[in-house]
Amino acid sequence: MCTALVGFLAAGAASALAATLDEDRTRGDIHGLFEIREAAVKFMAAENSKNGTSWQVLEPNRKILVAKCAAALRVKWVPKSHGLSGPNVAVSCDKTVKPTPQHKWEVFVPVDKGPVARK
Fold it and tell me: How many CB atoms lie within 10 A of CB 39?
């Protein structure tokens, strides 16, 4: 088995052992779900400020494992036409750090409307 694959699998095992999302940080060839969620949180803060909304970012699927990104993460709303069960934002990477079968990726992160303001 090639060394890169062994390293990727070892990093994946570490991801599976992370007890919380805060522990699932970028390391080696793996992009952490913590940083992916943080990109979504920053995007949503700007959206909430711009639109006077109170969307809250939930956790991405903890089973997701993606290669480390070489470029800045991009975030956008996922269109309803994607047929997801609820609203999501897509955090995407256009280029991974090493040549892997996964040259780019996109992770959907669910969002939820925050508490309704009462008058």
Answer: 21
For every residue of 41-75, DSSP letters joined together read HHHHHHHHHHHT--EEE-PPPTT--EEPBSS--EE
d(CA 100, CA 97): 9
Sheet order of strands, 55-57 included: 55-57, 105-113, 88-93, 74-77
CA distance 83 to 86: 8
- Tens digits of per-residue pLDDT, 11-58? 454 555 556 667 778 788 889 999 999 999 999 999 999 999 999 999
Q: How is residue 69 written in tokens?
A: 């990104």
Give the domain ranges of the chain: 3-113
